Structures are given as structure tokens and as C-alpha cells.
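Slack export, channel: ligand-projects

TW: morning all. Re-posting the request from yesterday since it got buried. We need the structure predicted with the small molecule present, not the apo form. The ligand is zinc ion; the SMILES is in the block with the sequence. No rush, but it would help planning for next week.
GE: picking it up
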Amino acid sequence: MQLRQLTSYLESIAPSDYQESYDNSGLIVGDPNMEITGALVCLDSTEEIIEEALALGCNVIIAHHPIVFKGLKTFTGKNYVERVVMNAIRYDIAIYAIHTNLDNVYHQGVNAKIAEKLGLVNTKILAPKKALKKLQAYVPAEISDQVRNALFAAGAGQIPGFKNLSHTSLGVGSKDQQGTAEVKLEVFFARPLKGKIIRALLDNQGDQQISYEISDIENQHVEVGSGMIGELPHPEYEKPFLQFVKKAMKVGCVRHTRLRSRKIHKVALCGGSGGFLLAQAKAQGADIFITADYKYHEFFDADGEILIADIGHYESEQYTIELLYDLISAKFSTFAVYSTEVNTNPVKYL
Ligand SMILES: [Zn+2]
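GE: finished. pasting the full C-alpha cell output, ligand included:
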């Protein structure tokens, strides 16, 4: 199997278009056409992970965090990032990162996995993003059904939370002073489908030349965005719930704000550094916000309105390894895939 088969499958779940602007998800080291012998899944592609991949005979590492975030100017091995890149190239190991794009998808994403581990129901994205576009095309009436069907088949109009995301208006086009029956076709689609949608349009235009434009839509895509919010099937008091979270997420130490002596019903969460979502968690009535990387002063922002629980960055995202392992092994049943046995958490508890 070629590396590109594996990465395009992963991008069908978490399109790279959904990554944040500061991110560097995607293929970091390696040739998309290389034959792959096995994949090792981890959170952080450290030097130990390269060694583990070599020992297992894997030549591709699938990591959640990108090892390279910004431009490297030298390759001298003076820090772990340079050493990892140098060793990956030296031993012909590809490194692929699936980071904020996997954070930002509702289905089979990082936060869905955490919600599953915590037994949440009625989940939805905490802070949905604008990720929709609209195609507007002027199509000769006689081929408009064919074009519309081709656009639907390419994924247009299939947006969760909305129905019938297409609009047709009849009109008259003019060419050489001759009026021709024309249809203005408008379809909505999720941003990563843009290339596919344009191809579907152009492949079906026959010998006509269809003019079209694409614009951004202000509505949010309810299945794309940051964090997640859901409910506990049976509300629980704060202390036993925190103890359950500690156990379920294998946390050495949960840092949390003052208990409010009430039951937890709604749970907001975000794997990794999710502090920026506190306002949304409060606004949506969450009783607790579970995330990581909280600083001292930020804990004050709970302000008696919510319980903040910092469960550690690695801990919050650890099940991403299981998630990726399950996805890859289910899709490519005869391909060798391994979950790392190295705990790459740089934070230790005494
Ligand atoms: Zn992270």
C-alpha cells in the first residue's frame, strides 16, 4: 500500500482544510508514493517513537501533534525536533500529523472519543465554525437536472443541521441577442469538497460553458468546530464525578476550581489546551468544563459559574491513539498498525 492511501483515508475523516491556521497537520516527512510496511500511532513523534517504529518494522508514524510547527533552518541535531526529522529521513520513516483537523470534527474526532469515555449523550460541537460555501452556477435549463444530481452526488446539499441546501431560480440567459432558458442553481457544501464540486460541475457542462462563482456562507457547520458539550445520562454530584473522570482518563492529579455543591448534568470538554472555550461552555449551561493547560489566573475565570477541571494535556488526548488505531485497522485489515507503548507525556507526577 502507498502512503497516500492511508493519509487520504485519514483526511476523509478529518480533512486537512479543518486544521487551525497555526497548525502543521499533514505529511511532514516522507514521500506520498512510498510503499508502507506498517504504521505506528502515537501522540508525539519523539526520538523514542522513531526507535519503536524501527524495532516494529514500521516506516510510517501517525502522530496527533506535529513534530514541526515552524520553519527549521538547520539540521544539526541540536534539539529533539531536528534530531527526529534527521532520523526519520535517515531511516526512511514517514511522519504524518493529524492534529487540529481531528480536534475539529464531530464524528470520530478527539473530543468525540473523550465524550465516549465519559459516557456523555446528546453531544454536539461546543463552538461550531463557519465551514460552508455556496456554489452559484448559471446552467442551461436542459442540463440543469443532470448538473444538480452530479453536484448532489459530489456531496453538495448534504449539510447536517440544514435541509434542502440548494436553490433553483429560472431565468433567461442571453447570448448573441438570443434568449435561452437558463437556471440559476445554488448549492451549499462543506469547504473541503470545493475541488470535487467544481469537477462535478465542469464534467457535466458538455459543450456549454457554465459560469459560476463560489462564496463563503456565514452559517456555522454544526459538525465542525472546537470542543464538545453533552449530558450525563444520570446527573452526578461533583466530587464523585471528578473521581470518575480521574479514573476514566487515567489522571495523576486533577486540578479543579471550588466545588459548587450541585449535580453535574451538562459537561463541556476539549482535549488539549481548551481554555479559550470557557465562555462558550458557560453560555451553553455546562456545569463542568474539562480540558487542560490551565494557568493559575485562568482558574479565577470560573467565577462561581462553572467548575473547571484541568486533567492534563496528554491525559485528555491519550485515547486519540486508540481512536486512530481503530480507524486504520478497521479500514485496512491486512495492514500492520500498532499503538505506541511509549508514554510520551513530558509531565510527571510525584
Ligand atoms: Zn494536544
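GE: first-pass observations. The CA atoms of residues 133 and 194 lie 8 Å apart. DSSP finds twelve helices and 15 strands in the chain.
TW: perfect, thank you
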